[in-house]
Every structure is written in C-alpha cells, then in structure tokens.
Amino acid sequence: MRRLSLALLLTLSLALVVAATAGAHHASIDGAAACTKRVNVVFWTANRHRALADALAANPAACADYYISIPALEGDRKLLRAGSVFREVRDLGPQFHSLAEVTLGLTGWAQWVEAGNGSWYDAGVEFRRRMAERNLQPELGHTWLVNEFDHTTRLDLAVRPTGTTPGYPRTAMRDLIRGLYEGAPGMSPAPGIVEIGIAQSHQNLPDVPAYKEQMKAWLQDGDFWDAMDGKIGWLAHEVYADTRYHGVPGSRLEERRRHLVDYQEHLLELVKAGGRRVLPARAFFKETFMPFTNGGGYVAPGGDAQDFESGHGNTDVPLDQMMKFVSEQVNAVEYYWERHLRDDATRTIGFSWQPSNRRGLPLAQFNAEVDIQAAHLAAVLAATYGPDGSSKSACLRETGTDWCTMQRPDAAFTDEWELFSAWD
Fold it and tell me: What are the residue ranges spanned by the domains of the chain?
C-alpha cells in the first residue's frame, strides 16, 4: 500500500481547502436565507471529534445543521465527559449541536441493568439526569444518540446466539427509548437519535436473503414502530459500504452509484415495498430515516471479520481514494434524495468518524491525513448543501480534480442488495 509524503499531504490539503472553501464561509452566513433545501448531518465519533468539528466549522455548509456525538468515557461507558467538551461543539455556532452517546454494550447501560440498578426505562431516565448535570438540555439543542439497536433487536433476542451475553430485545429497547424521551419528572421531552447497527448486515454478508427475511419480520412488528413514533427524531441506519464492492476498475460513476444506492437505501426500499403489511413502520421511516455512511472515518476498522458482528466496511485504501469514496457516498445519498423528495424537503445524512491508524503510519503523517480527510468531508458537504448545491457538487470538480473517480484494483460489484426493491 503506497504512502504519501507529509509534504505532499500538506500540499494536497492546502489545494483542497483553498479551492473548495473560497467564499464558502461567506456563503454559509449570507446564503442561508437562499437555501431551497436543508440537511441535517449527524456524526457518530469514536475519537478525534475536535478535528472533525473544527474542519466543519472552517467550511460549513450554508444549508446544514451538524450534530456531533461525544463518546462516553473509555473506562466506563455510562459516564459522560465534562460539560465543557459538549460546549466546545455548541460554541462553534448556531449550526452546531452536541449529542450525548448512549452506549449499550461493553461497560455501558446493559451492564447497569444487568447489575440490578434498575429497568431499561430507569436507565433512560438516569441517562437524562446525567445529561442535565452537564447542562445538556433539549431547549439548548442538545440530545442523545443510542449506539445501537443491533441484530439482537432485529431478531428480538434477550440473549445473544452465543448464549454468553444479554441481547437488546425490542421490549427492552422500547422502554429505554421511552425513558430517554421522557426523562425525570419536570424534564422536557427530548426526541433523540438511534442507530441500527451494522452487525450481521455488512455489504459482504454471505446470506443476504436470510437477512432480508429477518428485516421483514421486524418491520411487521407494528407495536414496536408505533412505540418509537415521536420519540426518535432520526433512525440512522448504519450502511458502511465496502470499497472492495465499489471501486471497480474501469467502471462509470453511474454503475458505482447504482450499486451503492442498492446497499445504502436497502432498508428504506424494503419498507416501501412492504405496503400495507408495514404501515406503522412505513409512516415512521418516512419521517425519520437517515442513511449512515462510513465516509467519515480513515482508516476505519475493517468489516473483515467472518462473524460480521463488528467493524465497518473495508476502507483500507490510499488517502486519495478514500477521499473519492467519501465524495461518491455523499453523491449517492443526495442523488437518491433528489429522486424521492421534493426539492425543498429537508435531507438527512450521517457518518461514522472513527480514524484508526491500522497501517502504522508515523503519527505526524497519520494526523495530517486525518485533517485532510476532515477538510475534504467538510468541503463535500459545503458544496452539496450550499444554496446551489446538488448531488453533482459532491464531486468537487471545480477544484481541478474529479473526486468521483474512485478505483480499487481488486474490487468487484455485488448485486445481492437489489433483492430489497421487492417484498417477496
């Protein structure tokens, strides 16, 4: 895998920022009133959230609101970071909002419930109390993000298939969300964000038809989706595409985008295909669905594990190709919205931001690459969601480089995800 010199990285960064941000900040202030459409952009961050936030603030999209999650403390995932960390996000300007991450696994809230501290509803209420201690009030634009409904919620399992750890069955998740929404007596209701996790739904999943049947069963659980109504602002579906199934040599953008859309939007397409069989889910998804991409991490953990329980889609490509992958993911999401929403409808898009130095780069080079990736992501969003932006704008062709030309020598398309365009 080739490495870029630090000098070349800095040159690339400067060229990108100068070309893509000329007038962008001015447009974000003066052009907001000219927006015919708006976008809500959500980031789940595992680390380096400040590098991301600073890049977004330096080049904000005129028509965007940014929601940035702050990870819980490493040693105890039930503990929130200091209130000042959340205020740093809010202080970036009125377009920026912080999210408190509700971690269920590891040392998170499942452990709290298992230890007998209270019910899942009590866990949600307790989390809101801890938010209030940090002055994270819904009236100030703060809310929560649940990480995550995983495959045990989809399968409605109280115990994981391994039989060693608890799952997150639907009744438990209904209670948790109600507690988070209601909070303690006297608190204002707070709709939040929930991620549907990547577990057992990677793009290279070996048995996609079986996964589809599981999703069909979940979507037909009308009581569950009715219970979520009004309590979740956005349902963020983790669809971390895999570069090995995308950047086919010699392919056209239209081909890559079609396969990417098949995967990114597969759940929403299945909901639409379900018709009257899934009416509560259909109404809920219409208001809340958000595709959650892996365009915000470099290099994110893999998607290589054969149990398909962890990791993102494989993003082990050179920096310039990852930047192109980001552009093409945003291009695909907005292309889909342009064909399924009114021109003036508010869009949604989400990203995982999890920089990981899997290649063992020197720290200075890795940090430089992370900063370039953050600047590129900010530029793509600023172009796509400016007053005159469109899906084509994600390619940033005005910079002198077409950023929608992603290639990976060993990539090959998969057509498995076309199955979701029909119910049966």
Answer: 6-70+197-421
